[in-house]
């Protein structure tokens, strides 16, 4: 349950981070705005978008890194055997052991008298 929640938050943070990076203007766009280019007409004004979008981007980047580390930790904590040898050891441990009180074992072989 927790793994699924973190995975959903990770995907949302990744998509939002990509969208925010694409919304931001490059450093060279300010020079074009000074000469009357149409790129200066932004939703947040000439300078307001830079601080809002950069803060939001840094928060989303932090969330993305934290969810990445958490998902990596969850991936290393699995108890499923990874190799063939580990699988065989698990199957041997689960297999029923022969009972010693039932006939047919080495304890039931009669001993010959020694001379």
From TrEMBL:
Main localization of the protein?
membrane
Bilayer topology reads:
Multi-pass membrane protein
* Keyword vocabulary terms for this entry: Cell membrane, Membrane, Protein transport, Translocation, Transmembrane, Transmembrane helix, Transport
Q: Does the keyword Protein transport apply?
A: yes
Question: Where does this one sit in the cell?
Answer: Cell membrane
Transmembrane stretches in the record are 52-74
Transport among the record's keywords? Answer: yes
Q: Where are the annotated segments for Disordered?
A: 91-115
A Pfam family per the record: SecG
> What InterPro entries has UniProt attached to this entry?
SecG
Record-stated family: Belongs to the SecG family.
Please give the function described in this protein's UniProt entry: Involved in protein export. Participates in an early event of protein translocation.
Which protein are we looking at? Answer: Protein-export membrane protein SecG
- What is the species of this protein? Candidatus Competibacter phosphatis
